[in-house]
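[recover] target loaded
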């Protein structure tokens, strides 16, 4: 910039500009610089003159601030003035400002002009008594006297004469004010009370109708069988109508007319609470709205409902209590019957849940031997047909486990016992795990499974990792199941849903698709698209119903778009919270065992068949295996020898797996102990992990899960 200014001085002429100079102490100051070209002794020189303008700049800044303040104050004043004018103009009562000396109107608002019929100019040309009847002359003098003595008048009532000639009632009040030039003015508030007068007239008519209504109320009480009572708080007198005697089962001639006559009729167990409610209502600290039982002279017990209001004097002292009673015995009996039925239904649901859980355990135990054995069969020695049969047997076993899990989840949801965890998790880990689990099916079908995660997607979320995976696995499994050729695509995006960050999961396939009727049924329990779908592809019809329940529990939504023969597209929105906390990871499966020749593994399992299955599965790891029959033997073995990992069954004789794990943890806190159990419900798994197990493997044992656990702890 300096070179440019100097060049311009030499070529274009003198330059004047503002500059920033540095002092010797490092501080800077504003400077006004002028540059002029000079020729001396044949040399081209530049004369530079600098002037310190710090004070000038400071003064300019202060002027700018002052100017800004003036503008702000002026704007605020104008704004308040505008508000004040709007208030006067739009006020729902008439407002007028008059000069005291000659009565000239300085201002009237819209409301006064509306109900008087005159504008300001018309009023200024009128005599005062053209608007006010002469009969109010004395009253007007008194009001002007009050204005003179105390600076205000009213409120008082009179009439105005409308422009059209009729009179109408008004209420006036006002104060004396000063104008900006010191003149005395009257600011009056004038209210058209025509409507209020009409109301007063209507009240008189209503009062006459009240007597008629009293008769009607009596008829209504007769119809509804409502008894009306009145209690004089001061004298203690109690007055009942005819229906009160019927409700209490007594004769009028036996009624003492005292407060005790009511309390003596109550069942003793209900007396204290009912009395307290009445005392609190009278004291003004509660309401009287009890239910109580009364005992008729013949021994019959009826349940009554009461309600009352307290009548007080101007000081708030209770004078009377007026209330009603009506019989709710039949209603109470119906409620009790419903409660009994509900209790029985809940017991039945609990029994069903326990039965399903026990059945799951009983089915999983032999299934462990079946599926475990099938997984260990050497396929190299089998012919083509045998390999196909083996493959179908493994697939059928896994399908049976899926059905068991669906039934158990349905049972939990139905009994409202399914709860969601709130832990940090990685959504990308879930995608990887789901793709791994369906990989074998995808490969066998020769279709493509593709995932696409948006670059801006946040990986870490807060929620139930197991249930989120269950939702995605169900959607992807269905897409793979119903797709014979083409592809299944998973898209993951982060969106804003109802002003909250949310996960958007889209699963699109090129499968068989669905018509409108089928789409309407896919979320129904025990239902699939149609009977042909069930016959061809199998399933319980619970999967999508459970998926929908889980999505709703998370506050999300699901949208299905499909056409027959053209595939299906499902979008799920899960409004979860983003987190930066350390995340929970899914245990990754592995189809290949690690070489564990130097590792010692203790297996605690009471079932001989399961012992053989587990040993066969671990044979290829070359680990040193020790097998015991119960928890007590496991504790003794762990005391004698250092193991690298323990596989612990839960239900065993003499000492179960939980107790054995806790005993071992007392003297060896570092050894990983993995629960082996047929109790595979999410709540059961969470319970085992909270009690101290490091991991969980469900029965029937999936060899990929087993190898994944070993790789996680021993590799």
């Amino acid at each position: 910039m300096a070179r440019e200014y100097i060049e311009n001085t030499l070529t274009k002429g003198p330059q004047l500009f503002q500059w920033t100079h540095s002092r010797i102490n490092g501080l800077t100051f504003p400077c006004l610089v002028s540059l002029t070209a000079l020729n001396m002794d044949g040399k081209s020189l530049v004369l530079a003159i600098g002037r310190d303008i710090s004070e000038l700049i400071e003064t300019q800044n202060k002027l700018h601030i002052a100017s800004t303040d003036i503008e702000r104050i002026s704007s605020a004043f104008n704004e308040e003035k505008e508000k004040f004018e709007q208030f006067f103009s739009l006020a729902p009562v008439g407002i007028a400002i008059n000069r005291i000396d000659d009565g000239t109107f300085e201002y009237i608002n819209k409301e006064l002009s509306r109900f008087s019929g005159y504008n300001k100019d018309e009023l200024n040309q009128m005599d005062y008594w053209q608007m006010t009847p002469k009969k109010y002359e004395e009253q007007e003098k008194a009001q002007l006297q009050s204005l003179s003595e105390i600076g205000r008048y009213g409120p008082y009532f009179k009439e105005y004469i409308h422009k059209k000639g009729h009179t109408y009632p008004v209420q006036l009040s006002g104060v004396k004010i000063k104008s900006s030039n010191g003149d005395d003015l009257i600011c009056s508030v004038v209210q058209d009370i025509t409507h209020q007068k009409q109301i007063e007239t209507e009240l008189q008519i209503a009062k006459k109708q009240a007597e008629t209504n009293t008769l009607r109320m009596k008829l209504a009480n007769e119809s509804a069988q409502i008894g009306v009572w009145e209690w004089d708080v001061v004298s203690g007198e109690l007055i009942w109508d005819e229906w009160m005697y019927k409700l209490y089962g007594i004769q009028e001639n036996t009624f003492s007319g005292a407060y005790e006559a009511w309390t003596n009729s109550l069942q003793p167990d209900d007396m204290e609470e009912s009395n307290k409610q009445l005392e609190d209502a009278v004291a003004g600290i509660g309401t009287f709205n009890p239910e109580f039982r009364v005992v008729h002279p013949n021994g019959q017990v009826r349940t009554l409902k009461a309600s009352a209001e307290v009548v007080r004097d101007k000081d708030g002292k209770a004078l009377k209590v007026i209330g009603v009673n009506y019989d709710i015995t039949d209603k109470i009996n119906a409620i009790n019957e419903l409660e009994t039925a509900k209790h029985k239904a809940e017991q039945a649901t609990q029994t069903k849940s326990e039965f399903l859980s026990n059945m799951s355990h009983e089915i999983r135990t032999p299934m462990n031997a079946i599926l475990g054995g099938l997984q260990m069969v050497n396929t190299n020695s089998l012919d083509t047909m045998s390999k196909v049969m083996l493959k179908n047997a493994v697939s059928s076993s896994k399908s049976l486990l899926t059905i068991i899990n669906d039934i158990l989840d349905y049972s939990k949801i139905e009994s409202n016992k399914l709860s969601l965890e709130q832990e940090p998790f990685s959504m990308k880990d879930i995608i990887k795990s789901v793709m791994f689990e369906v990989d074998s099916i995808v490969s066998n079908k020769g279709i493509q499974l593709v995932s696409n995660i948006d670059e801006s997607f946040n990986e870490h979320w807060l929620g139930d990792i197991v249930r989120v995976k269950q939702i995605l696995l169900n959607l992807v499994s269905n897409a793979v199941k119903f797709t014979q050729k083409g592809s299944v695509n998973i898209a993951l995006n982060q969106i804003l849903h109802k002003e909250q960050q949310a996960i958007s999961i889209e699963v699109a396939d090129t499968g068989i698709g669905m018509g409108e009727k089928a789409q309407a049924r896919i979320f129904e329990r025990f239902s699939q698209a149609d009977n042909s779908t069930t016959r061809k592809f199998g399933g319980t019809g619970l999967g999508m119903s459970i998926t929908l329940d889980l999505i709703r529990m998370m506050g999300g939504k699901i949208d299905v778009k499909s056409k027959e023969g053209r595939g299906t597209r499902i979008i799920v929105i899960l409004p979860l919270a983003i987190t930066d906390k350390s995340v929970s990871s899914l245990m990754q499966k592995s189809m290949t065992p690690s070489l564990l020749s130097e590792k010692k593994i203790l297996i605690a399992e009471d079932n001989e068949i399961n012992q053989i299955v587990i040993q066969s599965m671990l044979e290829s790891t070359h680990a040193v295996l020790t097998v015991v029959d119960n928890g007590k033997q496991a504790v003794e073995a762990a005391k004698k020898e250092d193991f690298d990992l323990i596989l612990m069954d839960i239900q065993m004789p003499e000492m179960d797996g939980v107790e054995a794990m806790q005993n071992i943890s007392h003297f060896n806190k570092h050894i990983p102990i993995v629960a082996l159990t047929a109790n595979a419900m999410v709540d059961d798994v969470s319970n085992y992990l909270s009690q101290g197990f490091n991991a969980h493997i469900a029965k029937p044992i999936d060899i990929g899960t087993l190898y994944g656990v070993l790789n996680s702890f021993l590799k």
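[recover] notes: Confidence is low (pLDDT under 50) at residues 526-540.
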